[in-house]
Amino acid sequence: MSALAICLVIWALLVGGALTGALLRHLLPQHHLDTHAKDIVRLGCALIATIAGLVLGLLINSAKSTFDSQRDEVRQLATNVILLDHLLEEYGPESRQAREHLRAAAGAAVDRIWNEGAVKTKPGAPFTTTAAGEAAERSIRSLTPATDSQRLYHSQAIQAMSAILQTRLILYEQSSTRLPVAFLVILVFWLFILFASFSLFSPLNPTALAAIVVIALSAAGAIFLILEMSEPFSGLMQIHSEPLRQALAPLP
To answer: Could you state, in order of their start, the residue ranges of all structural domains in the chain?
Structure first.
């Protein structure tokens, strides 16, 4: 289920929580809704609201930090690919095949990360090694330098390739971080209780109902941000693929 669909469900649940509170206000005996009960419910809901607010804030901050980190890793990956191609070009015409394999590997990586990211069967699948990537690595490692200059460029190319592999592994590890379902269920349960308390002691007139709908949409929107930033290669807030897609120009 997409982040947008999940948040629409959460929004409906929160509005339903407010309607549940209004229903309970009519069903419960009047002595269950006296001043003492009202004070206890309001104090308890104030505690729940504080906890839920802190959790939402921490989750948004954590998701934003992870999103920014993965965006920077993609930029670093593109930089290392450009550097590797430059080193191979300086190596000499013997590296042409390796450069062709590098372009094929970069294109395959972009297609797997962004095109398959929304339908992959398991977390991190687009970041695993491809046949094109393995061919590029073999081509680079199989180069046989004949001069000191070529040995220097070959050594630096190996280092750049190792940096690319390391960045890919970092992206692989970060791609497996998801918001646990149990965590999301508990958070929505807290919010449901809060919205039920809004209408438990106060009647729902059209203005109050409209306010609750907007507030519920805002709370669901916060969860939408968390879920969207947890999926940086798909959805509405995905990291752009242009830095990596346009890293290498076609060989002349």
So the answer is: 3-26+35-245
